[in-house]
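ESCALATION

Customer reports they have been waiting on this structure for their group meeting. Please prioritize. Original submission:
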Amino acid sequence: MEKLKEYIHQILGKNLEIKELSKEFTNKLPFIFKNNFNFYVTHLHNHELILVQVNKEDAFNAAQLRQQVVAIQKVLSKRIIIVTEDITAINRKRLIDQKISFIVPGKQMFLAELLIDIQDFNKDKAFQKEFLLLPSAQLILLYQILHKEDNLNRYTFKELAEKFQYTQMGITKAIENLKRLAIVEVVGTKEKNIVFENDVRKLWKSIEKHLINPVLKTVYVDEKPTIKMYFSNTTALEEYSDMNPSRLEHFAIEKNKFYELEKNNQLVNLNNESGNYALEVWKYNPELITKGITKKDNVDPLSLYISLKEGFIDERTDMALDQIIEKYIW
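Update from on-call: job pushed to the front of the queue and completed.
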């Protein structure tokens, strides 16, 4: 709870006094709650709050957790705040969707009933941008995770530029971005190489908050362009999960290719609302990661996960995204 005190003081300038919840209250709760959670009490903005510390995030099931929060709230007649040391992006979204107040010390605070939603590095957009991956950096990172047999640690900067079709300056910027976010180390003097964390789980946890949506925008056309494209969005989920493809076919197209087709008037009835096909304009080339991964001309599973996780998704899509992370990360 010391980290929590420091975080609240840093963000809100308040000195919290946190005490263990007395047995007078905890004895009223079913044993399963006392076994799974630790209970504390504090005051913030004249509100008495019960802090419910969740020790294992793997046990998260947002819908079930909401039922438990409601049950605890009913017994104790007090506002409940979930406290956890770490949280994945998808679980964070689930808690917000379920309107469950939570605090991740040092990272995020969402207090639904007090109408407070604070994330670090969210104070101004320019500052926030410093803590996000460049599209080129994300391309390199996801390739490293998915193509374990082709370890990028052995490539020089020049070889990386050739491999990912960037200029020398473009690849240097990407590596500087990865280095600044403590995702890689740079070794060597004349011929430099990058070194990634070998443990994929650790690597994924460290980079989740820096990931960007690969989709720049979505447009619609009535005829499919004749160039090579990859299935994306819910169309691509069927290869990586148990979900059936959507009726409307979605395709990913790298932005430079898209603008070239647009410039040459090769997109039939291009618009932002509806059409026979949906085109997702991507910030990086999907082919460079997915080659050797897909068997059905789909975008790679991790870019797919990132592109869908922050949008409005139904329960089936949510489960499909869980399957992707389970298969390719955990």
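Sent to customer with the following note: The chain has three domains: 2-119, 127-204, 215-328.
Escalation resolved.
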